[in-house]
Amino acid sequence: MELYELTCHELKEKLDRKEISSREITQAFLKRIEQVEDQIKAFVTITGDLALEQAEQYDAGEPVPGLGGLPYGLKDIICTRGVRTTASSKMLENFIPFYDATVAARLAAHKGIMLGKLNLDEFAMGSSTENSAFYPTRNPWDLDRVPGGSSGGSAAAVAAGEVPYSLGTDSGGSIRQPAAFCGVVGLKPTYGRVSRWGVMAYASSFDQVGVVSRDVRDCALVLNVIAGHDPKDSTSVNQAVPDYTSFLTTDIKGLKIAYPREYFQQGVDSEIRQVVKNALKHYEQLGAIVEEVSLPHSEYALPAYYLIAPAEASANLARYDGVRYGLRDLQAENVVDMFSRSRAAGFGDEVKRRIMLGTYALSTGYYDAYYLKALKVRRLIAEDFQKVFADYDLIVAPTTPTVAFRIGEHTDDLLTLYMNDILTVPVNMAGLPGMSVPCGFVNGMPVGMQIVGKPFDEGTIFKAAYAFEQTTDYHNARPNLGVSK
Amino acid sequence: MDREYEIVVGLEVHVELKTATKIFCSCSTAFGAEPNTQVCPVCSGFPGALPVLNRQAVEYAIRTGLALNCEIAEVCKFDRKNYFYPDLPNAYQISQYDQPICKNGYLDINVDGKHSRIGIIRAHLEEDAGKLVHQGSITTTTYSLVNLNRCGVPLLEIVSQPDMRSGAEARAYLEKLRSICLFAGVSDCKMEEGSLRCDANVSVRPKGSSKLGTRVEIKNLNSFRSLERAIEYEARRQIEALEDGEELVQETRTWDEEKQVTRSMRSKEEAHDYRYFPDPDLPPLRIDREWVERVRASMPEMPDQAQQRLINTYGLSDYDANWLTSTPQTLEFFDETVKHYPDAKAVSNWMMGDFSRLLNQNNMEIADSKVTPQYLAEMLRLIEKGTISGKMAKTIFEEMFFTGKSPEEIIKEKGMQQISDQETLQKIIDEVVAGNPKVVEDYKNGKEKAFGFLVGQVMKATRGQANPALVNEILKERLMRE
Q1: Chain B contact for A311 (CB, 8 A cutoff)
Q2: How close B3 comes to chain A (CA, Å)?
Q3: Which among A248, B40, B196, B211 has most CB atoms closer than 10 A?
Q4: What is the pLDDT of residue B390?
Q5: Residues B397 and B323 grouped into a single domain
Q6: The 3-state secondary structure of B266-286, one letter per residue
Q7: Does B273 lie at the interface with A, CB-CB under 8 angstroms?
Q8: Which residues pair with A366 in a beta bridge?
Q9: By three-state DSSP, how is residue A174 classified?
Q10: Which range marks the domain in which residue B426 is found?
Q11: What percent of chain A has pLDDT over 90?
């Protein structure tokens, strides 16, 4: 096996036993990037020199347990001091932050090795990474297909072996959906579990930083580093962080798993339903209690999300006005003209569309009918989940209604594209933790199973995910990429 | 003002809270620093920056609320007020829309003996914006610079009921509000530095009507005087318009200090839709009652209490008591002086007279002057003893004011000692009487003016140092013997 095919914990074992150095690991991944990046286009910026420098420093210093000395990539919406952070937008094409996001600082303090910044749908708005202002990222399992989004670069890079793990953000499924499309593990932690400081905001009450990894153990190792209270983020919660690897057991006897009937209905491909049903049977065989439940307000989640999230986005993205940083139109006649010309030139269509939607939803005369009503729906959805969690430990469902679609397939059909998030959005509405775990294939493309837990109970998700993974073989499957010389 | 009309005024006052750091980040709030040196990702609106509420700002808001007899909310929240402007980095201001931290308070004012209670609808926390610097005028400038130092400085916006009925009442309200904030220790309230700002809502209506007239908001009121004048002007303008059968429009007008008129800025139709919504970066703020009670227990004496104390303890007039409680420094100086010289009325007269005149003339505050309460008391004692005259005291006080020297020292330096020695004066008076037989004759013939002339001659002979009361007494006696 090549180094780039290994998981973090496998690499770490070799590193700790001094079989290999951090520099060698880093070089192996940089070489892999060189070989496949032309086909995948997962990166916006590759920081090879910086990575090698960090690796050498690691090799020269004291070893750091966990993920120390191992490479990673960051979704390019996570600010990195001194390294261009673009949100895959023309607006920020040349923006170099002078501060680190808290998660970036934590990984750096943990002596991780940053390989670069990963592509996304502009400002995290999209489900395919086609909305990147630079180029679409491709799915390593089929280069004609999308990797999902918005953290498409984060998922594709892990699936293609360009990085052993990466961070993404998930506001409506942006980690879980690409993880499912690319056959890797993707975790969106509970809202408030991980700091949002330094992460460019799309929809602040939904945005949450999470993990993309090869397997469940790696995911736990990463969450161990990034989780925890941050005094710089008032929405981060001050609650103890357990060692998530302590939940990694295969004994799940008596675990109560619910599957919502609304997630196995029309609109979700029958093959995918079947694959996830099989996974549920597998859980029964492992000793879990599996029962059908109802989340009756699920169908309203998506429309409500597309009011609240754009409303927040319309304010969050208003700061990109050309005054202090970012793209500025120099032809403008006056300041108002400069605002509109800079924003017209800097933002792509989807971003403009959501700013318009959100502005409309918040306007006098529409606020009550749209924004306020959507907030009420949000509460009903959260209550649906609460009721189920009174009796069950976890909810299991498909992550996506289809496997990865073709690039350009939904360009003219935005509703179908938005529908792709129908199974992930409700979880963000309720602020719950959710993980997508590879659970099979349909027509050669990976399928993800979504495991949703109670607030701050990522531990039980890890337990169920690990039990499934260790008794199946899906996580060992690798896409077959041709290697360019 | 036309007798048929009543003026209705409500004020929106922005008070800058004197926290060391900004409301949502740890940048300094110090005034007057080099442009853009007190900024960070949060207050300059960089991507990914998040606000964290300053606890001291909340405490100051609670303090102000208690001083204004407000209810302090158990839960309140922060909202985003959206609009584009180059001095507003996030393109939204974090403010409080429908759940302010304080509401339903009041303060009492007294204008020419008429007491009124002015309701306070609410007081809410918000962040300040930055400042634009134009090359020349805003309309002709080719470029403008942005200074973000002020962005994120905490403000408390205090909104009154439309309870004021004249420019003078509005002025009294603002002065009282300033005193309260100064006593509560929450703000410097310097209008010239913008730490106290005021917009006025003005309307007029026929006397006896309970319906409010069309409201006009006046901005750019930079002093107590411009507030008063702008309201009087605007009310007169509205009444004249109504008398001419014109219909008033709801609009925002600006006060033109130079021309002393209000000018239209924008109408209601041009008003912004701010699209307020709850700021998802800040969870609702819960204020536990224990905190409120702790703040309440720590409240110092407020202007109303102090006024009552001065009236009860020293028998001072409403007017004096009101003046002496305009700032904590004024009251402290008074209290300190009275400790050393218990004639409160005399102290108050000196403070409201020469002291206040010198402060105004030199645009100074009490803390800027060098005179101490001890020296003022000492000087007053010297007047009482007859060592110096009232006129000398004026010179001495001015000297103390600028140099901080003691009255004794100044008297010695200037040779100002008053001549109160009977024998010395007797001798001088004898000489004056002997040297002016004609005037003495006039006096005896009933010419009162002649007496004043003789006193003048005595003063001249002593270079003004003769004790005037004693001169009067001895001279009268002397002339009777003539």
Answers
A1: yes
A2: 40
A3: B196
A4: 84
A5: yes
A6: EEHHHCCCCCCEECCCCCCEE
A7: yes
A8: none
A9: coil
A10: 422-481
A11: 95
